[in-house]
């Protein structure tokens, strides 16, 4: 075989975009390995649907993996994506820490990583290309600001309980931080109990039952880190013979349809929006990162706050 024949074949391979990593690249699709946290909440279901719709569109080849709320599953999924030599890895980290090693492995394999929804704590931020998601600290502050506004003219003391998200997760850490930043400065409020309900309805109900028992029902306010836990807690409050939304004022985070229904029924007082529908923007970022184009290191999702009086009008417009 002559040297010029070999050179000719090589340039042909370059021109047709063929690469040793297989059929996906030949078809000119971006292969994305996406590791999702799990299916713990209404928010997560909406987020999965949004990401799937955007990354199952033409131009992409999605490899989807559900971590069932376990970091070890997520690390396994990431390693499998690296072994399969996907073009881009995207994932929503269950917890904040413990990612350094696997992210270094992705970097060594030259696979760019896009963080979605939740942040990681790493010493080197070149381990990921960009992070798209909400400002969780601000969400905690918004919940606290609503409580201050709703408590205008109320003398206190007000006994507050807090249903936290998954231990070690960015939304649990940040929402707590934002909420406390504002509430702790007002002497009328006392946070009497704080415990994780793991972002699920079942756990939210279980922990709220324990709170009610321990506090002998003397709770004025519930701050839940997500709507699902608030909805679970509402059941516990009703079963204890109290009126959610009246005897115990409730503010939670996400803005899912279930929360709007609860607000419409007068059982939830306010919800801070956390928008899960960022699939289309994620797809753009993946495309740019894959093309080597510059992308912002942080893309923040815009969101609002809704109170019970808006629920009936807003409910038909909700997209998740
Ligand atoms: O990371 C986002 C949070 O995770 C949402 O608030 C919650 O509902 C979900 O489980």
Automatic annotation (TrEMBL):
Database matches in InterPro entries: Peripla_BP_I, SBP_2_dom
Subcellular location: Cell envelope
Keyword DNA-binding recorded: no
Domain Periplasmic binding protein: 32-272
GO CC aspect terms: cell envelope
Gene3D superfamilies (alphabetical): 3.40.50.2300
Biological-process GO terms, alphabetical: transmembrane transport
Superkingdom of origin: Bacteria
Translocase recorded as keyword: no
Molecular-function GO terms, alphabetical: carbohydrate binding
Signal sequence coordinates: 1-23
CDD domains the record matches: PBP1_galactofuranose_YtfQ-like
Family under the similarity heading: Belongs to the bacterial solute-binding protein 2 family.
Name this polypeptide is given: ABC transporter substrate-binding protein
Source lineage: Bacteria, Pseudomonadati, Pseudomonadota, Gammaproteobacteria, Lysobacterales
């Amino acid at each position: 075989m002559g040297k010029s024949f070999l050179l000719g074949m090589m340039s042909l391979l370059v021109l047709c975009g063929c690469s040793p990593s297989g059929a996906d690249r030949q078809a000119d699709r971006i292969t994305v390995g996406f590791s999702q946290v799990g299916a713990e909440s209404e928010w997560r279901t909406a987020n999965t649907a949004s990401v799937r719709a955007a990354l199952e569109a033409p131009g992409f080849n999605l490899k989807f993996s559900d971590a069932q709320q376990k970091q070890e599953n997520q690390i396994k999924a990431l390693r499998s994506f690296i072994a399969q030599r996907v073009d881009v890895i995207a994932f929503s980290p269950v917890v904040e820490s413990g990612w350094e090693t696997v992210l270094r492995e992705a970097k060594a394999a030259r696979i760019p990583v896009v963080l979605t929804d939740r942040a990681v704590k790493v010493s080197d931020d070149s381990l990921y290309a960009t992070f798209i998601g909400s400002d969780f600290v601000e969400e905690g502050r918004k919940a606290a600001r609503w409580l201050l506004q709703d408590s205008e003219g109320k003398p206190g003391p007000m006994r507050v309980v807090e249903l936290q998200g998954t231990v070690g997760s960015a939304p649990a850490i940040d929402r707590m931080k934002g909420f406390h930043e504002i509430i702790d400065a007002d002497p009328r409020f006392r946070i009497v109990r704080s415990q994780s309900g793991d972002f699920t309805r079942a756990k939210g109900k279980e922990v709220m039952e324990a709170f009610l028992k321990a506090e002998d029902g003397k709770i004025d306010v519930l701050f839940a880190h997500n709507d699902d836990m608030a909805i679970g807690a509402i059941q516990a409050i009703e079963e204890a013979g109290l009126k959610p939304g009246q005897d115990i004022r409730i503010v939670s985070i996400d803005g899912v349809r279930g929360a709007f229904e609860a607000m419409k029924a007068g059982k939830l007082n306010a919800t801070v929006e956390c928008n899960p529908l960022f699939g289309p923007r994620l797809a753009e970022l993946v495309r740019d990162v894959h093309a080597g184009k510059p992308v912002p290191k942080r893309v923040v999702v815009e969101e609002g706050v809704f109170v019970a009086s808006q629920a009936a009008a807003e409910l038909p417009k909700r997209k998740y």
